[in-house]
Design a protein that fits this description.
The protein has 14 helices and 16 strands. By secondary structure, it is of the alpha/beta class. The chain has 3 domains: 155 residues; 87 residues, Rossmann fold; 111 residues, 2-Layer Sandwich (Nucleotidyltransferase, domain 5), CATH 3.30.420.40. Strands 3-2-1-8-10-9 form a 6-stranded mixed sheet, sandwiched between helices. The chain has a 6-stranded mixed sheet with strand order 14-13-12-11-15-16, sandwiched between helices. Strands 6-5-4-7 form a 4-stranded parallel sheet. Strand 2 and strand 3 form a beta hairpin.
């Protein structure tokens, strides 16, 4: 069995090819620039060359791609965007137009001059990933499934905060199914309100196997639970410190006991530790995070989680975990443990995607769960597998 997993963040897209015939540690992996970083560089090059730009394709991750497009418009250079691509900058297209970006239909886009710089927006480029693997003699033509994670605020109605909209969605999902895999779907079942998740499905050209879609943060936290030290602790805090968002879960035997989500750029170590302590003892309020320009907080479990009594307090993963490694005004007061599931922190999200795929596609579950439990393929060498 082969499953392609792709965890798409703001800085990188982390790719892991699972093969049930091999130990997970022998799976092929790639850490590459994220799609939004690729677009960021393409737009900046066009701006340097003073070229007009047409943005086409699908809604994708914003941040760097959106900042570059806005800078191009501020430079007084022509920039056009089809409606789906423009939604990357803002769901309300009149606000995109107010930035100096002209919204054009697909027909109008086709009739623009041929020398315009055309940049396609898409989070999941299966054909390019397959081509990269093919250069190393690895075919992706025989996949049993693919799983992709992206961060999605959702399509909030006009006048509704996208941060509040996302947290209302998180709350609804946890109340319906209290597990981290509640945020994973078989692509046809993706909620219509989750527009970026929908766009991944729309952009999955060339894919002829089932596609699982998931939110990035729960995927990373779920993946971190497969670290052998983390797995031994029944109740735990796990913080995913991402390039753009920081999300922490308090987990217990019955599932999710609480969580918060903030923008990484808005917090430092001291603020993060304060949030973690309040999440642990159950005192954290949604407004504490939301009014600080974060997304919010949810508390379900009433029993506090006591910190300071064990050899570590919080399990940490994510590309910005260095927040706990020093370089701050003072050392951490909350003791971290840096999760390395199957020896690789950077693809924790891919392991989470793999675990969620077992829940979403039960016919594939047994070999996946055996692999994640360290059973099955132990001792099989890569050269013994065709």
């Amino acid at each position: 069995m082969k499953i392609l997993t792709v965890d798409i963040g703001t800085g990188t897209q982390d790719i892991f090819l699972y093969d049930s015939r091999l130990d997970i540690e022998n799976g092929f992996k790639l850490i590459l620039p994220s799609p939004t970083m690729i677009v960021h560089r393409q737009v900046k090059e066009a701006t340097k060359s003073k070229m007009p730009i047409l943005l086409t394709g699908h809604q994708m991750g914003g941040g760097p791609s959106a900042w570059a497009a806005e800078a191009h418009a501020r430079a007084g250079l022509p920039i056009y965007a089809t409606p789906d691509a423009a939604a990357t900058l803002n769901d309300e297209l009149d606000k995109v137009a107010a930035l100096g970006i002209k919204i054009v239909s697909d027909d109008e886009a086709r009739n623009l001059p041929s020398d315009i710089c055309r940049i396609e927006f898409r989070d999941f480029d299966f054909d390019t990933i397959a081509e990269a693997f093919n250069h190393f003699g690895v075919s992706l033509r025989d996949l049993d499934a693919a799983a992709v994670a992206v961060f999605d605020h959702g399509a909030a109605p006009a006048g509704v905060s996208d941060r509040q909209f996302r947290f209302d969605y998180l709350d609804k999902r946890i109340r319906e199914k209290n597990s981290l895999s509640a945020f994973a779907y078989l692509s046809p079942d993706t909620p219509k309100i989750m527009s970026r998740l929908q766009s991944v499905t729309d952009s999955a050209r060339g894919l002829d196997c089932p596609l699982v879609i998931m939110d990035t943060a729960p995927a990373a936290v779920l993946g971190a639970t497969f670290d052998p030290v983390a797995a031994k602790r029944e109740r735990k805090l796990i913080a995913n410190v991402g390039n753009f968002h920081t999300l922490a879960f308090r987990l217990g035997p019955n599932g999710i006991e609480g969580l918060f989500e903030h923008h990484t750029g808005e917090i430092d170590l001291r603020k993060l530790e304060s949030l973690l302590r309040a999440l642990a003892d159950g005192s954290l309020q949604h407004e504490d995070v939301f009014n600080d320009m974060g997304h919010g907080a949810l508390i379900y479990g009433k029993e506090p989680l006591e910190l300071g009594k064990d050899d570590f307090d919080v399990i940490v993963t994510g590309p910005r975990r260095s927040m706990f490694l020093g370089g701050q005004p003072s050392a951490p007061t909350i003791k971290p443990y840096f999760a390395v599931p199957f020896g690789d922190m950077m693809i924790a999200g891919c392991f989470g995607l793999l675990a969620a795929t077992a829940d979403v596609l039960p016919n594939l579950a047994e070999p996946i769960r055996d692999s994640l439990a360290g059973k099955g393929a132990r001792g099989v060498a890569p050269w013994d597998v065709d």
